[in-house]
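Narrative summary of target 7.
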Amino acid sequence: MPKYFRKGVKREHHFLKGLEKPLEEIASIPGVKKVIPGRIYASDSRGFEIKVTRETQTGLKLVAKSDGSVQEVFLVVDKADRARVREEIILLSEDWTK
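Modeled conformation, tokenized:
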């Protein structure tokens, strides 16, 4: 794995508060090759939530919300695995929002 990756998650830049553990869980889903956190934006969001927003050329795009901020997260996933990975993230996200 390249130098900034640990447990399948790129760690070159910052994460939102509370996002590291869920990203490690997502990285452990079979079919997920890489988890790459993206830009962080300010918002008026409250609480913690991770949603799959759309497919990209290389996988899936997620949006993570945590108390006043939103962060894009990109997953590298093969086309054949995308639907299954999306469903597993939906199931896992129920535990994260509790």
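The chain has a mean pLDDT of 86.
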